Amino acid sequence: MDAINIAASALNTHQAWLNAISNNIANINTAKPTSGDAFQAQYLEVQEQAGNDGVAVTKVVKGDAAGRLVQDPTNPLADKDGYVRMPDMDLSDQMSSMILAQRGYQANAAVVDRAKTTYEAALQIGRS
After folding, report:
1. Cα–Cα distance for residue pair 25/37, rounded to 1 Å
2. pLDDT digit string (tens) for 59-95?
3. What angle do the packed helices 2-26 and 91-127 form, to 10 degrees?
4. What share of the chain is helix, strand, coil (3-state, %, to 5)?
């Protein structure tokens, strides 16, 4: 059952990665006043679990709180000079990460399915 447990840990990790990316994409256009911090992107730190039991998220690392200043005088949050603070994220980087996370999730789901099929075949051989 090790194959299923290891792939399941990877499925959980990829799901957490997809959740973080989704949150980043949802907030990519979130404007904040210049007096505060910009939305901080979330990035996961992942590490192998002890005993070769797969992987796990060890911590969530936040992006740059300074963000970038954008002139948008029509925004109600703009300062006297017309600036707002926007997150320092690139949509294409986030979308590329999302594709990688999706592919990783799909690959590990396939591992679980194949391992299940193999274990079922082994049980059938044992019954014969």
Report:
1. 18
2. 999 999 999 999 999 999 999 999 999 999 999 999 9
3. 160
4. 50, 20, 35
* Residue keyed to tokens 């796990």: 56
Q: pTM value?
A: 0.87
Query: Hey, what's the torsion of the CAs at 117, 120, 125, 126, to 10 degrees?
Result: 150
Q: In whole angstroms, what separates CA 111 from the centre of its chain?
A: 20
**% of the chain beyond a pLDDT of 90:** 82
Is 41 within 8 Å of 62 (Cβ atoms)?
yes
Rounded CA-CA distance 69/82 in Å is 10
Residue with tokens 């447990």: 5
Long-range contacts of 20-25, Cβ-Cβ distance < 8 Å, separation of 24 or more: 20/44, 20/60, 21/94, 21/97, 21/98, 21/101, 22/98, 24/87, 24/89, 24/94, 25/91, 25/94, 25/95, 25/98
Rounded to whole angstroms, the maximal C-alpha distance in the chain is 81
The tokens for 34 are 């210049």
